[in-house]
Amino acid sequence: MSNPWPPRITIDPLVIPETQAVPYNDPQTPPPTSPDQQPPAEPGMIPLTVAEIERLFNAVTTRTPSRERTAHWSAWRRRHQARARWFHQRTRLTAAYIQLI
């Protein structure tokens, strides 16, 4: 007897409608330009990664505490990663300035 869990989901490529190409707009703030620059109030979000798409898909197709909580956690994590990236770039910029002196 086969186990029906987890359910196997297949996507028929003939059913998926063709989409028009949409220009990509980077939602992130530009990197820092000086070592003493203050961080932006809103750093934006990093683009969706394959792992994040998988998490969101699993949240929609399986039982989770709540879909709203999952979406909130995803947005928080992506915002946090964008902020961490900005600070990392500023730190590297500081190191580059120190090497020039």
Give a description of the structure:
With 101 residues, the chain is mainly alpha-helical. The chain contains two helices and no strands. The protein is elongated.
Summarize this, please?
It contains two helices and no strands. By secondary structure, it is mainly α.
H/E order of the elements? HH
Q: How many beta strands in the DSSP annotation?
A: 0
Radius of gyration of CA atoms, rounded to a whole number: 20 Å
Structural class: mainly alpha
Unreliable runs: 19-24
Distance between the termini: 72 Å
Mean pLDDT: 74
- Proportion in helices: 40-55%
Strand percent estimate: under 5%
Count of alpha and pi helical runs: 2
**How would a textbook summarize the main sheet?**
none
Shape: elongated
Detail the topology: elements first, then pairings:
Layout: H1 50-61, H2 67-100
Helix pairs in contact: 1-2
Features:
single chain, 0% strand, 2 helices, 101 residues, elongated, mainly alpha
